[in-house]
Amino acid sequence: MRTLRRATLLLALCLSAFAQSFYLKDGDRVVFYGDSITDQRLYTTFVETFVLTRFPQMKVAFTHSGWGGDRVTGGGGGPVDLRLQRDVFPYKPTVVTVMLGMNDGSYRAFDQKIFDTYAEGLRHIVESLQKNAPGVRITLIQPSPYDDVTRPPTFEGGYNAVLVRYGDFNKQLAASARLTAADLNTPIVAALEKANQLNSETAREIVRDRVHPGAGGHLLMAEALLKAWNAPPTVSAVEIDAASGRVVSTENTEVASLASAPVLSWTQTDRALPMPLDTQDAALALALRASDFLDALDRETLRVTGLSAARYELAIDGDSAGTFAKEDLAAGINLAKLPTPMAKQAARVHELTLRHNLVHFARWRQVQVPLADEQWRSGQFQNAVNALDALDAELVAIQRAAAQPKPHHYTLTER
Fold first, then answer.
1. Tens digit of pLDDT for each residue in 296-322?
2. How far is C-alpha 384 from the geometric centre of its chain's CA atoms?
3. Cβ contact 268:255 at 8 Å
4. Fewest CB atoms within 10 A around its CB: which of 153, 262, 264, 301?
């Protein structure tokens, strides 16, 4: 019993050390606030899935409250104070991200009067958040880019240069108000430039209409926000010396039952899952090539030294994950790039992320907002809202259960 307690305590300490520097904490309630780019529910759902798969024991609630066309003064969903009162504060957020600016600059050359409206409006949002959600941690997001890279600018200097100036104000306001700032412009522009060199036609799909990114662009935006939140790069790491038959080191995982005959085999239980990445999406695959996403946030490393044959097939739970030269195995391979059972499990988690957010969207945008002003007598309106909330909560429970890591059997066979 004491041994079990010590093992449990050690595991808890390891998990705590892994998560302690990350911005989000157990019990946090995150609201993503913004315009149509947030309303796409892509960078936000990538962030949600990352947190679920990297920290499966941590319970964090996510609400996606973007509205197309929004500015700091509001938009199609109503004036800003109504938006905050209806779409943010009821969720009792402990963390709020704010990304506005794309529409605020009016798609024209820099205009001081327009900018002053933006600056005043963003200050008002911050003050309202701090007043109505005491203790809330705010991340001000510097606006994502208008694509002046893969297409020529529409006027001298280009619209993205205007957004950069707006982003600079965000950064200054965050510093003066002791908030967190996240730059979702600079790294995406750098990736666009590299992608444009690699494949100019596909690079246009990263930010399809110059404003709204596709999945590849949103993945890079999620990376930038997660970096600002000090997200850990490692899913798991294992090093095995095949010659001596011993486990040299592990990180965020446990290795058991290591055997060298008839083939090298072991059981591995990681404490996290890799990010699910649909590399069949050409623009997303190009975005990965043009960025450091895998190295910066998705390291699932396996290193095996002391092998004698030239090539080995790696199988996990009996399914082949690939064949590798012994030199590559000795240097270390990143399993996050491979079609593993862990990647399939993570894809299921992301599917549930999208589904529960779809339910919330239906509750919010198709029931709550458009029908709230009707003179309901039967109580069915509130019953419908409550039923959709319950369905959302049940999907979140399924999502969290799906994110829990499982043991997997590994073999390395000479080829």
1. 999 999 999 999 999 999 999 999 999
2. 30
3. yes
4. 262
Give the span between the Cα atoms of 27 and 199, in whole angstroms.
Answer: 43
Sole residue written with tokens 């390291």 = 299
Structurally, the chain folds into a number of domains equal to 2
Tell me which residue of 258, 264, 250, 338 sits closest to 306, measured CA to CA: 264
pLDDT in tens, 116-136: 999 999 999 999 999 999 999
Residues 62 and 121 in one domain: yes
In angstroms, the Cα distances linking 54 to 19, 48, 177, 268 are 9, 10, 30, 16
Place of tokens 């004491």: 2
- Paired tokens of 86: 């209806």
Q: Are strands 180-183 and 137-142 parallel, antiparallel or unpaired?
A: parallel
Residues 223 and 242 placed together within one structural domain of the fold: no
Give me 9's structure tokens: 């305590």
CA distance from start to end of the chain: 44
CB 69 within 8 A of CB 104: no
Reference 228, options 182, 193, 184; nearest CA is 182
Domain containing 371 equals 234-415
Structure tokens at 67: 């509205």
Among residues 162, 197, 228, the one where a domain terminates is: 228
Strands 61-66, 180-183: pairing kind: unpaired
Give the global pTM. Answer: 0.94
Domain boundary among 228, 257, 284: 228
| CATH at 24 | 3.40.50.1110
